[in-house]
Every structure is written in C-alpha cells, then in structure tokens.
TrEMBL record:
Keyword annotations from UniProtKB, A to Z: Aminotransferase, Pyridoxal phosphate, Transferase
PROSITE patterns the record matches: AA_TRANSFER_CLASS_5
Signal peptide limits: none
A GO biological-process term: glycine biosynthetic process, by transamination of glyoxylate
Protein name: Alanine--glyoxylate aminotransferase family protein
Taxonomic placement: Bacteria, Bacillati, Bacillota, Clostridia, Thermoanaerobacterales
One family name in Pfam for this protein: Aminotran_5
Native organism: Aceticella autotrophica
UniProt cross-references to PANTHER family, sorted A to Z: ALANINE--GLYOXYLATE AMINOTRANSFERASE (PTHR21152:SF40), AMINOTRANSFERASE CLASS V (PTHR21152)
Amino acid sequence: MNKKILMTPGPTMVPEEVLEINGRQPMHHRTQEFYELFSGLNLNLKKIFKTKMEVMTLTASGTGAMEASVANLFSKGDKVLFATIGHFGERFYDIAKIYGLDAELLDFGWGNAVDLNVLEDKLKDGDYKALFITQNETSTGVTNDIKAAAETAGKYSIPVIVDAVSSLGGIPLEMDKWGVDVVITCSQKCFMSPPGLSFISLSERAWGMAEKSTLPKYYFDLKKARKGVMKEKPDTPYTPAVSTIMAAKRATDMLLSLGLDNVYKRQEDFGKKVRDYIKDIGLQLFPEECIASNLISAIKVPEDISASDIINYILEKHNILITGGQGRLKGKIIRIGHMGYVTEEMLEKTLNALKEAVLKLKK
Ligand SMILES: *Cc1c(COP(=O)(O)O)cnc(C)c1O
C-alpha cells in the first residue's frame, strides 16, 4: 500500500529531509550547537511573522501559546472581546474564562466570517482591553480578513490578538505593518514540521500590557522566554522540544527559500482547485466561496452518505486521512487540509479518492 498521506488540518505532512533531522540524536540545549540553531530559527520566525519583535518558541501545541497570551497580558476581570466563527475561537474564549477575564463572546456563527460593521459597533462602545480573533477558522474552513479587523480595532486603539495557528506561513499576515499586537502559531500546520512547538510574538504595546498583568504564570512566562531569545547565545528557560526545533529550523529554511509569496500563491491555487473540483462532482462547499479558506476546505456531506463512511473509505482504500467536523459540525461536513507540505500529486489523489468514495457510497 502507498504511504499514508495526511490531508488533515494538522499535524500535516513533513518533508523527508525534515523527518531525517527530526530523527537524529537530540542536541543538548545548553551548547554552542544549540545556540546557533536557535538563533537561526529565531531569525526565520521573524521573517515569517513579518516583525522586528522577538518571536518566542514554547514547547507546547498551539493551544499553549494561546493560553500564554491570556496569562501574560491580562489581569482578573479585564474586559475583552472574542469575535468567534467556530470551534477554535470558542476555545480561546474558554481559556480567557478559566483565567477569570470578563470575556465577551461576539459569535458570528459557524460558517460565517467576522462582519466588520458589527465588530466596529461593538468595539466602539465596549471599552475592551483587547480583541481576540482567529485568522483561519480550521473547524469551518473560513478565513477572516485580519488586516481589516486590525484596522477597525486600531481606530479605537484596541490591541488585537490573532490566532494564526493554522494560517501563518500559508496566507499573508503582516504583524508589524497591519498593527497586530499578538500573533500565535505552531509547528504542525503550515510550518511543515512535526507537532510540539508553538510560536508567539508580542508588539511593544503588548509587552507594556505584560508589565501590568497579574495573572499567574510559570512555565508559560513570556518574559522569561523573551529573555532567553534576546541573549547573545539564545536559549529557552526549560528543556525545549529540541528535536522539533531542529526540524522546524530546516522546515522554515525551506519555507523561506520557496519564498512566502510563492507559498501564498500555491495555497490560492490549491484552494481554488479543491473548490472547482468539488463543484464538478456535485458537492457543496460549507461556507460561501468568498470567505473560503485556501488552507482547508470544509465540504457539506451529501444527505444520503455518512461523513464517517467517506472518511473511512478514503483511508482504507487510498491510505489518505481527511477529517470530519468538530463540535456541532460533526457528521455534517468533511474537511480536507491542504496546508503545509502538500504536493499537487497528493491533492489530486485526495480529490480523486473523494470522488470515488462519493460514487461508491451513494445509495
Ligand atoms: C490547530 C489549531 C489550534 C491549536 O491546536 P493545537 O492542537 O493546540 O495545536 C488553534 N487554533 C486554530 C485555528 C487551529 O487550527
């Protein structure tokens, strides 16, 4: 049988040469060898985040950096707004509630994008300490316009915290230019690396907020992490996932040598290709096409077929893993991830397998 292909929203496929590095003996993290590796990674991260600020590497999945942003910037009772469009936006809101923030949910509904006029009305009167927003809502296959959202929040001087976990390195995001205060991402989605790391960067304004924050933090103390990054011989406060750092350094080298603009273009092509294909075979996209993600496609499940039958068929017959819906979309949609290390060939195989599954399973 062919090697398994992950067409999921993460973990995503990892190129062979990155896998090879990941399989080497780990480096010790207090050695010259590691300092050089980590400086290299830090430089790559700044280029991908499009920021002059430090980017901190945490040994945790994306959710770890989300939690770190809450714990480091705020104090109990701070009033904040969550513009949500799906599962991951709601997860962020849940984290804020756990930490005792006065978190307000502005829910645009699963399958929609944030409506900027509605958002603006809310921000205008709200007196919020921050706006939290997801760039690419992986659960619904919808992308928000972060540039416009940051502009809107900027009118009212409200800091913007962006969950770019499934989008940074796949679609444009310019942290400094767009005036985004916190950007969060991780290793296992667009970064072509194994899971284990999350990455987070804070603007000057966000560091100012961190100075005032009184919420407890220890492992996720970003000031400690920043100190490590700023050293001449940069390191992390605790033992990091060294192997994943080794892998992520190589993978981000690859990403940057491909050229981010070329990657963005390739993702646009992939998104369009999937959308055209599913229309051709009589399936429907879950969100409206104008807000559809170029990184992950959410597709409505035809009424006479079950989502899990489609997923199982494609896995058993073709060794390709796609995923179903999360939360309230379970059973209603299937999702094909096409972010990170996806080739034309992998995508074509997946689409052909989907077509075959639908034909075979139709009653
Ligand atoms: C994957 C993902 C996360 C975090 O997931 P982890 O499993 O913790 O890495 C957060 N937000 C979005 C939009 C995601 O796609």
